[in-house]
Amino acid sequence: MRVLFVYTDIDVKGGARSYHFGLGLLSSVLKRAGHETELHYMFDKWDPEGYLEHINRFKPDIIGYTSDSSQIRYVAKLIKFVKEKKGDTIFQIAGGTHPSLYPKCLELIEELDAICVGEGENPLLDLVTALDTGKPHETLPGLWVRNQDNEIMRNPGAAFFHELDDIPFGDREMFDYQVVIDSDFDRATFMLSRGCPYKCSYCGSPAMGQLQEGKYVRFRSVENGIAEIKGVVTRYKVKNIFFADDVFTIDRKYVKAFCEAYKREIGLPFEVTTRVESSNPETFKLLADAGCTRVAMGIESGSEELRRKVLNRKMTNNKILQAFKDAKGAGLKTKSYNIVGFPHETKKMHEDTIKLNREISPDGIACYIFNPYPGTALYNISIKDGFLNEGHLDEDFISRADTPLVMPDFPRDEILKCYRNFAFNVYKGRSMKKAILYKLYYSRFGESLLRIFDAVKKPILKLATGS
C-alpha cells in the first residue's frame, strides 16, 4: 500500500522546521512491513495546490494526517479538499493529540474516514494490512471508523506498547532531515521516553495517559537510544542535540547510565527539558559532565496560588529558585518556560511571573499564550466558567499569537501586551541588548522581521535565547 503522511506546520514562530516523531515512527513501521510512504510537509504557508500535485504524483491509497488543536482547521480543509478532488478513491485517517482527545472531530469532519485514538503504530499497521488484504477494518482496536452506512464505530483503545526497543528508529529521511537540522541551529532532536507522570491541568499528556491500558511512562534502553543517535550523527551534519522528552530526569538511575554512555560514545553538546520537582544538584552535575550545556524548566506562572489551584503544579517559588541555582552551580545555562493568559489569571499574577524570572535570571526565556486544548482540565474549566466559546475551533484563530479566552479581569489586549513585553520586562534591568532583541522577537512584527533577516537569524536568536 502507498501511504502519504501529511504534516501541517503553519504560522510557525521563529521559522524552524521540525521533525515529527510520531510520523517518523509510523513511516518506519509501515516500511518494515513492506509498504511505501512519503511525506507532504506543508510548512509555514497554506498551499493546497502543491498538495494536490503531490497526491497526483504519488497516488496514495491512504492519507494519514497528524494534528494538534492549533492545526486542525488546516487539516480539516485539506481533508475536504481531497474528497472534493478525488472522491472516495483515497482512505483518509487523522491522528495526533487533537483527534485523540477530541474524537468528536470525526463527526464534524464528514469527509474523514477514521481517526486513531492514542498511539498509532499498531492500529495504523493493522488498518493498512486490512485495507491491503481486503479484510474488515471497521472494528480494529485504537480506531474510530466511519462504516459504509456512515455510522461511527467507536472501538476500544489499543493497549500501550511497552517494548519501545522493538519499534524501528524513526524515518528522518522522509523529512529531508538535514534541512530540518540546518534550520534549527544545527541541532538534531531525540526522544528516549514516552509519557509524563505529572498531571498539569493545561497539558494533554494526563488525558492521553488515560486513553489506553498499561504503563504510560516508558523508556527505551540506553543502548537503543545511543544506537539511534550514532546513526543520525554519522549520516547528518549535526553540531548539537536536543532531547525532547517531557521530563528527561524523571528516572535518576536511567539518567546516570545514559550520561555515562553518552559521554563515552557520542560527546556532542546537548540540551534537555526537565521539571523543577525532578531536579537535584547531583543530576545536574551528571548532565554537565556528559556534555549538557543547558536545561530548560517550566515556571509557567510566578503565582504559587495560580499554580496550585488552577495549574495543578505544586512546587513552591523557593523550590524553583533552588532548582535554577543548582543548575547554574553545575555550570549549566538555564531557560525558563512561561505562559500568560490562564483562566482566572490576573495582570498582578503575571507581574509575579516577571518578578520570579528576574530573581532566577535565566539565560533564555520562552513565553507562550495559553491555548485551551480540548481534552484538558483547563479546557473544561474555560468552558464551564464562561471564558471560552465552544465553537472557537471553527473560527479563524491563530493560537500562537492570540487568545480565545474572554476574561473580564484579564482582557485580551492586556494579555497580548503582557506576552509581547514579558521578556523585555525581565531583562531590561540586566541586559538592555537582550531585552530589545526579545522585544523585537515577540512584537507583532517579529515574524516579518525574522523573514527579512533570515540570513542572520541564528546569531540573533542565539544571543536572545541564550542558546
Account of the protein in words:
- This protein is of the alpha/beta class and 467 residues long.
- The chain has 2 domains: 2-154, Cobalamin-binding domain (Rossmann fold); 185-465, TIM Barrel (Alpha-Beta Barrel), CATH 3.20.20.
- It has helices at residues 21-32, 48-58, 72-86, 97-101, 105-108, 121-133, 177-183, 205-208, 222-235, 252-265, 281-290, 304-311, 317-329, 347-360, 377-384, 412-427, 432-441, 446-452, 457-465, and strands spanning 2-10, 36-44, 62-66, 91-95, 114-116, 143-146, 152-154, 187-190, 193-194, 218-219, 240-243, 270-274, 292-300, 333-340, 364-369.
- Helix 1 crosses helix 6 and helix 9 (222-235) packs parallel to helix 10 (252-265).
